[in-house]
Amino acid sequence: MNTDSEALMNLFNEFSVWTFVQIAMIVLVSLASTLILRFLIPRIAEMLPARFRLIALNILPLARVTIFVFAVGLIVPLIFNVTLKNFVLVLGTLGVALGFAVKDWATSAVAGFVAIFERPYRSGDWVRIDQDYGEVIELGTRSIKLRTANDDVVTIPHSRIWDENIINANNGKNTLLCVASFMIAADKPADNIIELLRDIAFTSPYLDWEKPVSVILQNAPHATTVQLKAYPFEMRDQFDFITDLTQRGRDALLAEGIEIVMTPEFTPAMVQSTG
Amino acid sequence: MTKSFPDEMIKVGSYDWPRPPPTSSLRARFRQLRERTGFGGQNPADEAPDTLEGLQGQLLPQSIWEELEARYRTLLDARFLGATDNASVKALVTMPSLPGGIVEDWAKINGLSLKQDGAAEEVQTPRSLIPLASMAWRTVPARAAARRQLSEIANATRRSDSGELLLFGSSWTWTYLAQTSSIRAVVSEAYCFPAYDCKSLAQLIADHIGSVQLKSVETREDILACKDDGDPKDNYLAALAATANGCPWAALQMLEDAAAQQTNGSEKQDEDDSSTENIRWVCDPSPPNIPEHLKRAPEFLLHALLIHGPLTEDEIAQVLPLQLPVGLSVALDRVGLVEFKGDKLQIVCRNYPHVRDILTKAGFPADQL
Fold first, then answer.
1. Residue B369 domain-assigned?
2. Number of domains in chain B
3. B180 and B211, same structural domain?
4. Taking CB atoms and an 8 Å cut-off, how many pairs form between chains A and B?
5. Are B278 and B304 part of one and the same domain?
6. How far is residue A76's CA from residue A94's CA, in Å, rounded to a whole number?
7. Which of A166, B34, B266, B271 could form a disulfide with B51 if both were Cys (CB 3.0 to 4.6 A apart)?
8. Spatial CB neighbours of B242, under 8 Å, sequence gap ≥ 6
9. How many angstroms away from the CA of A43 is the closest CA of chain B?
10. What are the helix and strand counts (H, E) for chain B?
11. Last residue of a domain, one of B225, B251, B282
12. Is the CB of B139 less than 8 angstroms away from the CB of A196?
């Protein structure tokens, strides 16, 4: 009993008011630094040229981890008498208790740490996780936040990266592929449709000229699906770009006498499955 | 001082963009950041001593513009007026900061026929000039017409009676066509004017400025004083050449705008100077900016004007399928980025480098020289 008590006493350093003040100061400075960076970096990123925006945004998660590790590194020696024996003792006792208590949080936090280096998503990327598609606006310790096209903010725990496919539309680049889909009658001529739709893309003000433009035709059970694929120069214009391609593409097809199929059975899911 | 003017046109793709001195670049970025964050940002002209006032009259004499024009004509003569090379199509690509009419006047003087509608099928003269702008019109029917036109040009080069064809247009028009059409296959060679670096600018200005001394407000140094190797001692001209993207027309106009003089009877700036009469002060170029509240629409409009050249309101609506805010063109005119010429809106030549800077920062596809 005496030995256990001594071991426990050896585990901790002697506390004084100054120790608590130091810990409080470290926590406060870390929190303040994180909050300042969280406030400043996105704003500075918005002011930078477009090509530097994503780079600046990705400084934030790394900086946060660095601050966290630094703070823990300062606090632990203040509380614990750091020796190998004590380390094993703490790991054995607290590890099991904490493991049960914050299992889910820990899983997400570890996944978040992995995500910083593996980079399935980065700040500013456009990702799809299950049904949610949006821009990564925040990489937190436990979760990421996506802003969808409808301006909803979806919070998704990092732990989803263990068992779900993460579809990253731009993968750190400044542009992504946009697709405008049309369905035309399979039994009617569609002369010059490729040239016509390529011209639609080439006359769009959102187009990134340096990237390829392509038109893909594919037969589906009741129609021919046509996909016009092109890249906008600014990812945030993707929905305006698709709207522009779809609206002017549809009008141009109709003006050329190409019949557009409007059968209710053609749901987006069917189009996706044929694509 | 050794002569350091560029003496021949260069192929598109080999343009030597002047680089700003690192300190100037950093200072400019810092100033932009201060302006955007509102922490003490101010116009560089405001940093000038209180005793400075706007220049009465012109800093640069008319002769400097005449010499520049003559130099450009010499470059054009040397490149395009040699022995007629039948069955060839060449392109002349210019920066939008080149004043309108330089190429057209040169063509007129040398008897080149100008095909305003771009038709190549009626070419009879040994050499003809065809503007690129009509081929870059961003509408679906115009693109089909442009393909036919390119096909005609390609065919014309096969005919024995056809002359040499010279397509000309802005670097933005060329880049758009090069990326989105088969113009590179039709054109055998594309040329552009070479960049003027700080040495060339210093030489050009020194030849015409007479006894006037130009001093930088920032450093208080003579911007034309050169080292032994011919490089100016002060960084002002190097920064100016970089800001103007190597276009001497834009650089000289920016210098003109940045010039100021010391008021009579005021306190002397430099105790060593016995007189301030022959000293002109130059501030750092002050870039006009898009008004914050207008967001992205102005950038699309500026981009369209660079690709297509001057446009009327109706033409803007054709090539830019966007709902632009009412009064946008007037707002941009007010800040000096665009101007009305008749009923057409166009980029202000001397502010073209700033427009380019705005668009590249916003990620718009830019011209490539």
1. no
2. 3
3. no
4. 54
5. no
6. 14
7. B266
8. B17, B18, B19, B20, B24, B25
9. 9
10. 13, 12
11. B282
12. no
Which value does ipTM take for this structure?
Answer: 0.81
Contacts of B175 in chain A (CB under 8 A): 209
A238 at interface of B, judged by CB pairs closer than 8 A: no
Which of B36, B138, B140 should be substituted to probe chain A, the one whose Cβ sees the most A Cβ atoms within 10 Å? Answer: B140
**Minimal CA–CA distance to B174: which of B94, B252, B101, B114?**
B94
Q: What is the pLDDT of residues A27-79, one digit of tens each?
A: 999 999 988 888 888 888 877 777 777 777 777 777 887 888 888 888 888 88
Domain co-membership, B116 together with B40: no
The length of chain A is 275
Rounded to a whole number of angstroms, the distance from the CA of B139 to the nearest CA of chain A is 6
Start-to-end C-alpha separation, chain B = 29
Minimum Cα–Cα distance from B320: chain A residue: A205
**Tally of residues, chain B:** 369
| Domain of residue B321, residue span | 292-361
Q: With 80 as the cut, is the pLDDT of residue A101 above it?
A: no
Domain extents for chain A? 2-101, 126-168, 178-274
Query: Is A244 in the B-facing interface, judged by CB distances under 8 Å?
Result: yes
CA A242/CA A39 separation, integer angstroms: 32
Residue B1 counted as domain residue: no
In CATH, what class is A178-274? Answer: alpha beta
Q: Do A47 and B138 touch (CB under 8 A)?
A: no
Is the Cα dihedral A24, A26, A32, A35 positive or negative? negative
pLDDT in tens, A197-244: 999 999 999 999 889 999 999 888 888 899 999 999 988 889 999 999
* Cβ distance of B179 and A49 shorter than 8 Å: no
Contact B179 A204 (CB under 8 A): no
- CA-nearest of B90, B65, B97 to B76 is B90
Clarify whether residues B165 and B307 are in a common domain.
Answer: no
On whether residue B75 sits in a domain, the answer given is no
Interface of B with A (CB under 8 A): 32-33, 36-37, 138-140, 143-144, 175-176, 179-180, 300, 303-304, 319-322, 360-365
Contacts of A49 in chain B (CB under 8 A): 360-363
Q: Write the CA distances from B305 to B73, B174, B287, B356, integer angstroms.
A: 26, 13, 19, 11
The verdict on a CB contact (< 8 Å) between B364 and A233 is yes
**Among B254, B282, B310, residue at a domain's last position:** B282
Kindly list the residues from chain B whose CB atom is less than 8 angstroms away from the CB atom of residue A209.
175-176, 179-180, 365
Q: Would you give per-residue pLDDT tens digits along chain B (369 residues)?
A: 455 788 888 999 889 888 888 776 667 667 666 666 666 555 544 444 555 666 666 778 888 888 888 889 888 888 888 755 555 788 899 999 888 788 888 888 888 777 765 554 554 555 778 888 888 899 999 999 889 888 888 887 776 555 678 888 899 999 999 999 988 888 888 899 999 888 888 888 888 887 778 888 777 788 877 777 777 888 888 888 888 899 999 998 888 888 765 555 444 445 445 455 677 777 777 788 888 788 788 999 999 999 998 999 889 998 988 888 888 888 889 888 999 888 899 998 888 999 999 999 888 999 988
**A126-168 has which fold?**
SH3 type barrels. (2.30.30)
Q: Which residue has the higher pLDDT, A269 or B246?
A: B246
Q: What is the DSSP letter of A270?
A: H
